[in-house]
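Retro notes
What went well: the complex prediction finally ran end to end.
Inputs used:
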Amino acid sequence: MKSSALPIRLLAVLCLSALLSACGGNGSSNGSNSAPSGDTIKIGIDLPVSGADASIGIPTQNGTVLAIEQAEGKGLPGGFHLKADALDDAVQGVHSPQQGASNTKTFISDANVLAMVGPFNSNVARAEIPLTNEAGLVQISPSNTADNLTKGPDAASLRRSNPDTNTYFRVCAIDSRQGLAAAQSARKLGFQKTYILDDNETYGLGLANVFETDFKQLGGTVLGHDHITKNQQDFKALLTKIAANHPDVVFFGGTSSNGGGEIRKQMFDAGLSKVAYLGGDGISDQQFIKDAGVTADGSYYTLAAPNTQKLPSAQQFVKDYQKRWNSQVGPYSASAYAGTQIIIAAIVKAIKDNHNKMPTRAQVLKNVAATKNFDSPLGPIGFDKDGDSTSPVISFWTVKNGQQAFVDQVKLKL
Amino acid sequence: MHNVLQQLVNGLSLGGIYALIALGYTMVYGIIELINFAHGDVYTLGTFFSLAILGLLGVSNQLHGTPLVIDVAITVIGAMILCGLVGVVIERFAYRPLRNAPRLAPLITAIGVSFILENVMQLWRGPSPVPFPQVFPNPAWVVGGIEIQAKQMMVILFAIVMMVALQLFIYNTKLGKAMRATAQDRDAAQLMGINVNATIALTFLIGSALAGAAGFVSGVYYQSTWFFNGFNAGLKAFTAAVLGGIGNLAGAMLGGFLIGLIEALANLFPNGNQWSNVVVFSVLVLVLIFRPSGLLGESLPEKV
């Protein structure tokens, strides 16, 4: 009897595999050398829009899409059409450098993609910059803050294919400023002793190290510095150890998707319920409040962007955004919008320079790099030679009654 | 010293969760010599089932008195039954057809089932962490400066009660005897009139029900869950089962508590948290090299 069942099973397996290969079939068949065709120009968007990063990734993506839609509505010279090509770099709910790199390769192999917006997370950027650098595709990140993406020998190694070309730009502040702002704000709130945690990622570790140095320099005491591990669920033992050191504030360098909210929640089980919690923009998302629940109150965080609601130059953007998406502006929506506007302006200029013909990636890159005093909702933006914003702003926030509450625009004492 | 004792309490409660999961690993291995890699995901499924049942009961936060006892009992038993059924279904469709195949084949289907469960949970409750309500008040007792919370006591008691009940079941009932006989020699057991398929299904039912209980306990303990938690917890529980002697119930319990303690006590050293996984899995390697039968395991006579 067994032998008669075999062909049926074989058939079933064949059907399944055919189905699977059909699903996976829309890979990149375009070679990177093929010329752009038609009159459509695409802007690639690589952000985490599922899972624990989605609560901040989606409003960021919305900002980008809004800018593209507005430009398309106004019309581009030469009759070109502008389209967003959005991909998700979260795998199993957490931003993934591998997925980011794969998305970037998809953009690179599509000749109609002339620029990309993203990524959101610094460790994803480390995987993407070498690719865009090699392909000469310009990318603007709304939110990567790690210093070593643009500064120092680490950044140079990311540009190893074309050391003299920079394809990576960002409109936010960097962590050497964000960490300093966090340290200054913590001292201003009267915190004397801190215990530092980080998630061991490019962003989290870098920010925690800056905070540690600056907090000490401002006369504070750093009781210790520990790293959490990937997918860690139990922080109780670690927090018990921290409680024994009696800090005034626990600093966390990392993202909500790596346990930012869970740590805050478990602080209440480990005798740290009266101790403040401070983080960077990694916990500036709604996911943090969702994960930490009622314990989110009494947390503080910095944001490497201004408070859009309070910014006179951003009022029109806020109105447009709420009208289009029917939701509140996210922490990095305006930054993404501004970055995309810079890209669009660069494309428009390139089309004009090219006598209304399809521009090349190199032309778009050249125009983005030359950006100075660009009028955006964040205020005038320009890029320095490293690709960093020349007018970075940092704001300081807290959580009150389960809501994000603006404290201050930080004026750095450098 | 005070620190060490407090970490012991943390380690024991963490270990209690590992122990509950390890019991299921060790039972399944004992009876069909299969490492059921999907077991950790059944544990996470237990948390999600508990969450769903609490939702159906309309429970939110901090119950007291009779409703507490009734609702919590319904939740635990419901999660255990559902997980047990999932275990039986997994056994029927992923392992039984491969019972006489080479050993590698069911191991690979086990990994496949693990992926299926993870993705089903991701589709069901989304890929981000899901909060779990605090179903009962959590008073803490301070004994000699050491704080012990109600939920920590609950975890430890749960693990011990479950292990004792299981031990009694296996050594004092007919079904337990059938399980032991099947574990010793499947063919001989069949010749003696034991329904081997039913006995193996029963093993999966009980093992997975224990994972369901562990799932509820971890939901209460951490007040949150994530579809991917079972992967790490499963690996640690597997380590616990090997450490204690795979196939041995008391060993699984001992191993679970030891792994929990190792993880917590690692925090007594600078940067310990980062190294805790390294230490735990080094223990696994060392045990496999120097005492493959585990702490309480006996080296079984060669099966022919």
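What we learned: DSSP finds 13 helices and 16 strands in chain A.
What to try next: split runs per interface for comparison.
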